[in-house]
Design goal:
This is Cytochrome P450. This protein is of the alpha+beta class. It has 18 helices and 9 strands. Strands 1-2-7-4 form a 4-stranded mixed beta sheet, sandwiched between helices. A 3-stranded antiparallel beta sheet has the order 3-9-8. The radius of gyration is 21 Å and the shape is globular. The mean pLDDT is 95. Bound molecules: protoporphyrin IX containing FE (HEM).
Length: 395
């Protein structure tokens, strides 16, 4: 069969996952896509949607059929900009870059950071609880990534201040070419210029992760031209993702006080509760994969040369995998959720992200009985999910 007829015979949907309404409340649309089939053609975007848990996992684990080297974004321009970074390579080239990035993020290497993170978490929570009312997005969730993580990365000062803005705009450009994407592109160019011209040897903090990349170039482990895009590997995903996870966690505990009581009564539940937050409100909702050869996903054939959007956020709400998936249940232990991806590109920063979340919510559990939401403004973003503002009072 020709590619066109393979697409014609696939289930399809006119659902638009990138409309404002869908981005703010994706759950009914995701359910529609999951029910439509294991892979669903979206004519408006000319891409398949993989929305079921098993379909997402399959694509993420089979890198030879679903490679990343043609980019994991939904538009060609962005796939060109990030060509050659860790996220967008495969096989031995990917392993070489990933081995360098992951070094400071392995549990052993994070031992020193743990002490600092726990102490910082305690002091920011003390301060905010004394205040009584605060913005859980900008004052609580931002704190550890902006103070501790950006310092560990060790970029020159001017860039550190802009990392949050850059990262958020960068992720908008992962989406299909819509207004949000075109609006964000100029900011992304600044970020690339900074990574190329400023994050250079001698300018980054001694002993930092950024210096680790330069050292790896000197040792011949990775090519010098990979340096700027590897800086982006740290600058892009290390802050907003964790920040949005933290604000979503506050929202979920505020709206499910019985679940907050459970973790307060039994702090051993906290690690599972953090996984449940990531399952319910995956900070990264979707990336995509090129389809390198015809592949049958549970009866739907995706032709070589097509592209599939992998909806981590939908797979995590798949009723075929997680019973009663829209219920926030801290006792669920969803260790195999997809919020950190899966397969060869699974998140290298997951140990750090979990450590930050655990430190903050352990400190909160010791000091806060209830969160009351005063104002909640979710972020409207092509890819990311979380809160721009989340004003709460704690008691
Ligand atoms: C809650 C926080 C986080 C979430 C939800 C998250 C999510 C993800 C996801 C879904 C992927 C897989 C992409 C794919 O399948 O193509 C990924 C990869 C990655 N993440 Fe994270 N991330 C988080 C925190 C971090 C942190 C703190 C860092 C760095 C310090 C980081 C660095 C990376 C890198 C470098 C990759 C690319 C890995 C590769 O391609 O081999 N992430 N992340």
């Amino acid at each position: 069969m020709q590619n066109g007829s393979l697409i014609d015979s696939a289930p399809w949907s006119n659902y638009d996952p990138y409309s404002d309404d869908a981005l703010l409340n994706p759950w009914p649309g995701y359910r529609e896509l999951r029910n439509a089939g294991p892979a669903v053609w979206l004519p408006e975007y000319e891409m398949f949607a993989l929305a079921r848990y098993e379909s997402v996992r399959r694509a993420l684990e089979d890198w030879e059929t679903f490679p990343s080297r043609y980019g994991v974004m939904m538009n060609d321009d962005m796939n060109e900009v990030l060509r050659g970074n860790t996220l967008c390579t495969d096989g031995p080239e990917h392993s070489a870059l990933r081995n360098v990035l992951i070094r400071p993020l392995m549990p052993r290497a994070l031992r020193d950071a743990r002490e600092r993170i726990t102490a910082e978490a305690g002091s920011v929570v003390d301060r905010l609880v004394a205040q009584g009312t605060f913005d859980a997005a900008s004052e609580l969730a931002n704190h550890l990534p902006v103070t501790v993580v950006s310092e560990l990365i060790g970029l020159p000062e001017a860039g550190r201040e802009r990392m949050l803005e850059w990262a958020e705009e960068m992720f908008n450009c992962f989406g299909p070419m819509n207004d949000r994407t075109t609006h964000s592109f100029p900011v992304l160019k600044e970020m690339m210029a900074y990574a190329t011209n400023e994050a250079v040897p001698g300018r980054v903090k001694p002993g930092s992760w950024a210096e680790g990349i330069h050292d790896a170039v000197e040792r011949g482990e990775v090519p010098a031209e990979a340096c700027p895009v590897m800086m982006i590997d740290y600058m892009g995903p290390s802050l907003d993702t964790t920040i949005f996870a933290i604000s979503s966690a506050v929202y979920l505990f505020a709206t499910n006080p019985d679940q907050w009581d459970l973790v307060r009564e039994d702090p051993r539940l906290m690690a599972s509760a953090m996984s449940e937050v990531l399952r319910m409100e995956s900070p990264i909702q979707d990336f995509s994969r090129y389809v390198a050869r015809d592949v049958d996903i549970d009866g739907v054939v995706l032709p070589a040369g097509s592209r599939a959007i992998v909806f981590y956020g939908s797979g995590n709400r798949d009723e075929r995998k997680f019973p009663d998936p829209d219920r926030f249940d801290v006792r669920r232990c969803p260790g195999d959720h997809l919020a950190f991806g899966a397969g060869p590109h699974a998140c290298v920063g997951m140990n750090l992200a979990r450590m930050e979340m655990l430190a903050l919510f352990t400190a909160l559990a010791e000091r806060v009985q209830r969160f009351e939401i005063l104002e909640a403004e979710p972020v409207l973003h092509n890819i990311l999910r979380g809160f721009r503002t989340l004003r709460v009072t704690v008691s």
